[in-house]
Amino acid sequence: MTTLPITRMTLYKHGVGFFERRAKLEGDAVTLTFPVEAMNDVLKSLTAVDWGEGQVTGIDYATPQSREERLTGCSVRLDDGRSLRDLLISLRGRQVRLLLDQAETAEGVLIGLDELPERQPVAASLVSLLQDGGQTRAFTLGRVQGVDILDEQGAADLRFFLQVSLTQERQRQVTIRLTPGRHDLSVSYVAPAPVWRVSYRLLADSETGEALLLGWGIFDNQLDEDLENVALTLTAGMPISFIYDLYTPFTPERPEIKEEERVAPGPVNFAGALPEEPVMAAAAAPPSPKMMRARKPMAEQLAQTTAVETAGAAKGALFQYRIQTPVSVGRGQSAMAPILSVTLPCQKELLYNGAKMPDHPVASLRLENKTGLTLERGPALVLEDGDYAGEAVLPFTAVDAEFVVPFAVELGVRVREQSGSRTEIHGLSLEKAYLLVEEWDIRWREYRLFNSTAQAMTVLVEQSRQTQYELFDSPEPAETSEDSVRFAVELPPQSEKTLRINRRRLRRRREEISSQSYVKLQRYLRQGLMDRKTHDLIAEILGLMEQIDRQNERLAEIEKERDALYQGQEQTRETMQVLGSSGKEGKLRAQYVDRLQQMQTSLDALAGEEQNVRQKIKRLENAIQEKLGDAA
Fold first, then answer.
1. What is the pLDDT of residues 505-555, one digit of tens each?
2. Strands 47-50 and 197-205
């Protein structure tokens, strides 16, 4: 059987790689070995194509079984710590030749191994043979130097046991069956692979306002073979990927369905796929002549000596870095391949965001991705005028998009922050029985910036965008991004400045007129939030409401008086029940009757007063509604 070398490899950022093996060969089968954990991906993706005149007839692999399941029927079983002893026990009844010390041999049918009790030397155990003529001989185990297995089945079982022990636990073999003859065979598949990484070098020149951006792709060879002259592609993006168990046999229980007639209703059409987006290849732009004249020696040397042969290609939602020079990486080694070398205009600036870096602004480089390549996220070493300036992480950046590289803290500028909030009434109006209040929810933040250096500084103060709040009484933003706004603060040498940012949002709420007071109305009038007409109307309504409150208080008093009269009547009736109708008791009973009549007269008077009070309340309420109606 023949194996295939890897000729092309594409690595992704989500833990898989796409591999292609290809070679011209002769034979009827090719065997590939894969780690057990790769089998589900291999079975999901393996594709074999014969580019010559031959054909692929099939692909087969061993059904996954445990070690014990595969060894079922194998007569040889060896323990890790006593292989010779277990071999002699397994070969019982088979023809063997024992290789003994002193160059002596003994041949016959192995009877077995007689082991001594515990704590006795293992070497003193006896190995017994049945020789031709029926003679039986025994030898101590210590004399046995080797065993020739003369029985072919026994030898085959030993070889099978050793093969299972070598490959069963961690590797699986896949055999591609071919028609006899010559083949130009390619086999491609997806398998787990370490993610590739990217590392940048950013060399900025303060005189020219340009920076050399170098990018290196880092990848690992964790395969069980060396990679020789492999076409390498590094892919950015997030393709959907998953593990689907195709390797483990599974037989589900199925329902029993009776046969039935089925007729299709008619033709079914599906729309074709949209044309694939054209491939956009982009080569790295050469350094400008101005940059070549002014660049420091390190940047110039790096640009000249770092050979970058990378083509970029947009593949729908993905972006590929195709390394034009084949790579070779030994088994268990890692490598770095240059993927980018381009000169870009850059602008140095100071950015301050207290949520990201408190107390001090961060020195940053602002660049625009004019490389023609999508930049994958990765760490960057920043050199400024040839000296180490700091480190940063370049964000994932599309072509022509702007990106900022913060690389050092500017300790010469210190920032102190204060913030607060308040509410201010914006306007008042009547809405039926409510006072509609419009008020500003105001939030402010103040920055005090101190420049202790001898150089003038410009600091961009960054705040997150708050779409629900508007700026007022604040400087205009110097720039706005998708999620933030930035304000420029010019700081002369040895100076201090204050920046105050005010934001506000208009909110509306309703308050019942009854909850207002004359004091609040006077304050609203003085502040110009309410006109005189509205003030007088609400004050008049409050006066009517106060009258209603007094009438309601009288209703409560009437109810108390009525309850007292009801209680007095009940007590009088209970007393009258025990009095006679003649003599002194008769006279006393007549007095109680008079008292009941008086209490009833009082109840009748209270009922009349209650009716009058309720009518008065109704008139007052109608008057309030009329005034509210007039205001509307």
1. 998 888 777 777 878 878 877 777 777 887 788 788 888 888 888 989 989
2. unpaired
For residue 442, pLDDT beyond 90: yes
Of the candidates 489, 488, 485, 448, the one whose C-alpha atom is nearest the C-alpha of residue 470 is 485
Weakest mean pLDDT among 43-52, 95-104, 115-124, 475-484: 115-124
525-631 topology per CATH: Helix Hairpins (1.10.287)
Separation in Å, CA 601 to CA 340, 577, 614: 108, 22, 20
- For 83, phi then psi, to 5°, come to -65, -45
What is the average pLDDT across 609-620? 90
Over residues 167-186, the pLDDT tens digits come to 556 778 888 999 998 999 99
Evaluated on CA atoms 338, 332, 21, 14, the torsion sign reads: negative
Query: Of 328, 311, 330, which Cα lies nearest the Cα of 235?
Result: 311
Burial 496-505 (b: 16+ CB within 10 A, else e): eeebebbbbe
Domain ranges of the chain: 1-80+158-193, 92-150, 213-240+282-409, 413-515, 525-631
In CATH terms, the fold of domain 92-150 is SH3 type barrels. (2.30.30)
Instruction: State the Cα–Cα distance between residues 560 and 562, nearest whole angstrom.
Output: 5
Mean pLDDT score of the chain, rounded to an integer?
Answer: 81
- 322, 338 contact by CB (below 8 A): no
Average pLDDT, stretch 409-427?
A: 90
CA angle 455, 410, 352 (to 5 degrees): 105
Cβ(461)–Cβ(454) below 8 Å: no
Q: Which residues contact 506 (CB under 8 A, 6 or more apart)?
A: 426, 438, 439, 440, 441
Nearest to 13 by CA among 241, 281, 312: 241
The per-residue DSSP string of 376-442 comes to PPEEEEEEETTEEEEEEEEPPB-TT-EEEEEEEE-TTEEEEEEEEEEEEEEEEEEETTEEEEEEEEE
Nearest to 454 by CA among 492, 420, 417, 422: 492
pLDDT of residue 286: 42
Give the C-alpha separation, 6 to 356, whole Å: 46
Phi/psi for 158 (5° steps) reads -65, -45
Token duo for residue 488? 């420029």
Of 170, 189, 175, nearest in space to 32 by CA: 175
DSSP code per residue over 266-282 = S----PPPPPPPPP--B
Please list, in sequence order, all residues whose beta carbon lies within 8 angstroms of the beta carbon of residue 553, skipping any fewer than 6 positions away.
none
For residue 416, what pLDDT is reported?
Answer: 96
Q: Which residue has the tokens 């007269």?
A: 601
d(CA 62, CA 163): 13
The answer to whether 480 and 410 are in contact (CB under 8 A) is no
